[in-house]
Amino acid sequence: EVNGLNNQMETALHFAVRCGHLSMVQLLIESNCDVNVLDLRNQNPLHLAAEAERADLLELLLIANTDLKQTDKQGKTPLGVAARGNHIIIVDMIIKAERYFAWKETHQDNTVVPVTSYPLSFKPDRTTQTNQLRTAMWNLANHHLKPKDWKKLAFHWNFTEEQIKAIGEQWTGTKSYKEHGHRTLLIWLHGILLTGTNPVKGLYEALISIEQKQLADKIRKEINGAETSQRCIVS
To answer: Where are the ANK repeats (predicted)?
Structure first.
């Protein structure tokens, strides 16, 4: 029985995640196991992957649509577990998934499917096709945004209080806001690319909303200029 329980109320999937068996986790998910069974700590397998800081296992469980809102006996969601451990990549992956599935739920009756070649993945994006945009996000966060701007942008883009708190858990000194801003921008960009929305337009409108019109004009010009140059090189 694929969903059978041991004396710790663990399924085979719990055990495979806890032991770090990637191929077994993949096999169990492909066998349609229940990804949301809770163990004695009231944790689903996603909690365990977040706790162990296993991005590869987390990716499989996120794509399998494991319950992101489930709380354990300490009241922690998988995001809360990752934030408590200061697992930055895991935190960002979970927030990306939360935002994507929230978008998908609100658009489930929409017959228009976005045209996008961007693959469904929640891992850090290192593809060449998004390099120009990611560079622009880094420059914006490190050279232009003020300390409170990243939170203003996050609220504008409907990040939840828990998501903003999880990003802010990382502390590297008085300039931590630069990294917070960079992560927020990349998480937002991930959702924009998955849903086939125009990132330049979205970023411009967001900067306008936080009263940064001059910066909005500058960034839009830089991104559009970089994309034009790239097309010229390719052609």
So the answer is: 8-40, 41-73
